Structures are given as C-alpha cells and as structure tokens.
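ok here's SDR family NAD(P)-dependent oxidoreductase, seq below lol
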Amino acid sequence: MVKHGRLLVIGATGDVGLGIVSAALASGRSVVAAGRSADKLDELAASEASERLAVIVGDIATEAGATALWEEAVTKFGGIDAVVVAVNAPARLQPLMEMDVDELSAIAAANLFTHFIAAKTFLPRLSDDGLCIGIGGGTADFIVPKMTFISMMQAALRMMYRGIARERKGGAELRELMIVSMVNGRSKRERAQPEWLTEIEVGRHVCAILDRPDEFPGPILKLTAREQVGRSEREV
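and the structure came out like this:
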C-alpha cells in the first residue's frame, strides 16, 4: 500500500502543483486537485484522465473557504492522508520602496497567510500519521532585483513553518519544501534553462517525502538540483 495514498493538492493548476499531481498519480496515489479556476481544473482532469483524480474548485484565502474545501475533499476517496500546499500568487515586479502597504498586504495575504490558514485548518483534521507539506522558495535567503517583497514573504513563510512545528505537540507532521531553483513548468517552458528543475522532478521529490517522511525530518527541507530528487539532504 502506498504511504499517504490519498493526497490533497492545493494550487494544483500552477506549474509546481501540476507536477505534484502528475507524479502522485504515477506513484499510485489518489489525488484531489484543488484550485480556483474551474476551466484549468477541467483541463487537468482531461490531461490526466485517471479514476484516481478528483478536482474541486475552492481556495484557502479564508478559514471558511479552507474548511469547505476540506469537507468536499474528504468525500472524494473516503478521507485525506496528506496535504500539499503549492500556492504562490504572482505579483508585478517592482522595487520595494515603490510599493505601498496595501500592495504588500495583498501579497502577504496570497503568499503567506494562505499557508497559515492551510496549516491551521488541515493539520488538526489530518490523522496523527498524516503529513502537510508547504511549498516555498529559495529567495528566503537571497534577493532578486525588484523581488525584495518575495524574499520577505518566503523568509516569513519559513519562520512560520518552523514556529508551528515547534509549537505542535503530536498529531500530523508538518514540512516546508523550499525549491531553491527555477522550475521548468508550463508557464516557463519556452525560456527554461537546462539546469532548472522540472515540475515533475519537484513532484517526484514530494512523493519521496510522502513515502519516507522519517528520512526527511525537516521541518524545513530544500531541493536545489535534480541530483537530489528523491534523496534526503543528508544523502547528497
């Protein structure tokens, strides 16, 4: 039997989310793919065409929305064993000092608070051997021109996952997987470089964590290059 065999993927139609869904299905898992766009979810369902795939429209912008999403997800395959949150809302690139507080607040709501809502909503509802994985970015450690605000959110996201993991006593486990690479996904295929990780490679690494969580103790994990896919940082 596949460990964590019933998977809920939030942000399933994004570049990384698509890779996770595809890799999870290939590994034998049943997947509930959640996103905000019914059209994109329909495209996903048509491209994968698997009886082990269910799609639902919803979001985690509010606790009420996240709760409703969970309640629908658990009906698809009789429960959920693990959750992956692959939410990363795009934003217009600009210098930090040209932004205002409202813009920063909107970016935080989409890229940071969504992960907080997911952890708060899903962790208590998962079984004690469940697992919740949030996808983060390597810019928590460096700044790309006109993307300081993204580095701010990613650094805060990492500390949030660390803090929640430290505060929790028992129950489902929590990880953040930081992707320290550009991802060759659907939206970047035409300009992707050979060294970029593909979305399927990211998905396979997520499946390795689901299969062998004890080998990926976290709470913060990093995936930097394809040589690491499926292997813990201690093995590389």
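fwiw The helical segments are 15-26, 38-48, 63-73, 101-122, 148-167, 199-211. kinda neat tbh
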